[in-house]
Amino acid sequence: MTFDGVHHSTASLSKDVPVVLFNGFSKVDLLPGWRLGYVVFNDPLGKLDEIKEGMMRQLRLRISANNPCQMAVIEALEGPKDHLEVTNRKLRERRDYAVKRINSIPGLSTATPRGAFYIFPKIESKHWKSDNDFVLDVLKNAHVLLVPGSGFCPDNGSMHFRAVFLPPVETLAKAFDSIEDYMNKVA
Known about the structure:
The protein is an alpha+beta fold. Helices cover 43% and strands 13% of the residues. The chain has two domains: 69 residues, no CATH class; 104 residues, Alpha-Beta Complex (Aspartate Aminotransferase, domain 1).
C-alpha cells in the first residue's frame, strides 16, 4: 500500500542477483493480525536451490495457516479490490494530517511516510533521555499510546517513536491536541 508513486518489488528488478521476497496480506489486503504471508524466489541461475529446498522441508512439517485464514486470503486475492482505493485515499488524508500536526508540535518532527499506516517521528526535545522515557511520559500525562522507536532498531530508532494513523482524523486530532498540550508544558 503506497501513497506517492508506484511500488517496485526488488524481485521484479533483479535480472542476475537471486532475491528471496517475503510478503504478507496484513496491510495490502486489510487482514491485520492474521500473520499470513508468502515467499517468492527469484533465482534464475539456481543459486538458492539449497535454501529453497531447506524451506520446503520445513513447510512439509505441517507449518501452515488455519483454514479460515487460507479461505480469507483466497477471497482477498480473487475478490473485488475497489475497497482498497477508498481505504488508500482515507489513509493518505490521515497521513497528511498526522505529518502536518506532528511537524507543528515543538520538539517533534517527521518525514512523510510513503506507504503503510505508520509514522516514525523524531523526538528533538532534549527534555527526555530516551524514546522509552518519552513514550511512557506521553502515556502517563497525555494519555496517548505510542511505541518506542528503539524497539525497532536500537541505533536508528533511538529518540523516535512509532504511531499509527488508522483512526479517523477526529480521533487523531484529539490525540495530537493532547500531545501538543503536554509538549508545550514540558519541552
